[in-house]
Amino acid sequence: xxxxxxxxxxxxxxxxxxxxxxxxxxxxxxxxxxxxxxxxxxxxxxxxxxxxxxxxxxxxxxxxxxxxxxxxxxxxxxxxxxxxxxxxxxxxxxxxxxxxxxxxxxxxxxxxxxxxxxxxxxxxxxxxx
Length: 129
Description:
By secondary structure, the chain is mostly helical. It has 5 helices and no strands.
């Protein structure tokens, strides 16, 4: 039996170029923003962001935002330094405060308890004489 030559093989992962805007939209998603928030930051509509991300997901073979971020990081398209927010780069991590008890005056309105008084049905209304 002889081997059949089917021609050149396609690479397992096609190499498509990612546009600057697709990468920017992906970075906003990687930073935890929604597509709508990314659109506001980028100055474009939600539909445009979704179109950019759909094209990017197709190029990467991803099905979700986190999947696309992981694939982009694995392929070197983005790095953890790209995802870091600019203001967080030069500041030391702040400890997360634990739960604390609020004094009664600082409690949110839904947590305040106040006695409910029902209208007194036994007292007749005063009438003007």
